[in-house]
Amino acid sequence: MAIDTVLLAVGPMDTVRAEGLAETVLEIAEPLEADVVIGHAFTEDEYEDFREGLGFDERVENVDPTEVAKRRPPVGDLEEIFEEAGVEYEVRGALGEVSSKVVDMAIDVDADRMVLGGRRRSPAEKAVLGSVSQEIILQAPCPVTYFRDLDVME
């Protein structure tokens, strides 16, 4: 199975592990000359919380999720790393229920591999709060590499 497209699914908590995520993606994408899609999905509530800080006057109904994603951390840092490495990439944003939007994005870009960061949670926290990463892994249309930064306790 050839790997032509790698989806790197990120969220605001991934800012602290952006470099590690990028290195993981580059280990796959560079030798195979695969394209990278930096995907950032967010909920309507998240968008409303930061839209003014990003300079967007539009309400959530009128937003282009990709334009918002391009301005949300850690996307800028990742773009810089991929540019320096000479890897082709694009940014995609999605607005809605995060796990289903990331899975939809993987389908839309025909991802051959996905890289996803996550945080450490106890089984009780997962049971009560759910796990976006776990939902994505279970529903993904392609193999997923799960990156957990052991130095970051969240």
From TrEMBL:
Coiled coil: none annotated. It holds the Pfam family Usp. SUPFAM superfamilies: Adenine nucleotide alpha hydrolases-like. InterPro entries: Rossmann-like_a/b/a_fold, Universal_stress_UspA, UspA. Residues 5-146 form the UspA domain. Belongs to the universal stress protein A family. This is Universal stress protein.
